[in-house]
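Title: Prediction job returns without error message
Component: structure pipeline
Severity: low
Priority: P3
Assignee: unassigned

Description:
Job completed but the reporter wants confirmation the result is attached to the right record. Sequence as submitted:
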Amino acid sequence: MSTLTVLVLLFSYSTSRSSSALVAAETRTVTTTSKTSDSTGSTSGSSSASATDSSGQQPTGTSATPSGSSGSSGSSGSSGSSSATKTYAGDAVMTRYGNVQVQITVKDGKITAAEVLQVPWNDRHDQMINSEAVPVYNQEAVAAQSARIDVVSGATYTWDGYTQSLQSAIDQANL
């Protein structure tokens, strides 16, 4: 009887991935661009890197920091009037499961977008949690216009790193 129970449990175990995990595991190239302006108004400097997981795909929000970089790229964007769209990368914050780093896009003194540059993505558990929590955190950061966002149940460590990195980016943007 116990053998029959084991077989039923074994065959009823779902091995397929959910659609949200598939979306999160799609290949995505993260580009980090840093521009500096001198007195003549010319800009220079750009770098790009991508990371892949064991299947050859790059999970959303993995570290894509070019080698030799400190992990916090500071601010980048167009130089010009104050209404220009600029991006600010917060500090990479170490959590129990890995680094979390957030980048915000600012236009006219308002956060228009938030995204992660780094998030723990080591195993299926990390992928499951962060593929659900990170989009919620990104939306809440834009809605709240601050680092005071609600925690998603089960993603407390990610939330802690996210809010600290988000606050660092907000501080860089002087918001």
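Comment from assignee: result matches the submitted record. Helices lie at 2-12, 19-24, 124-144, 156-172.
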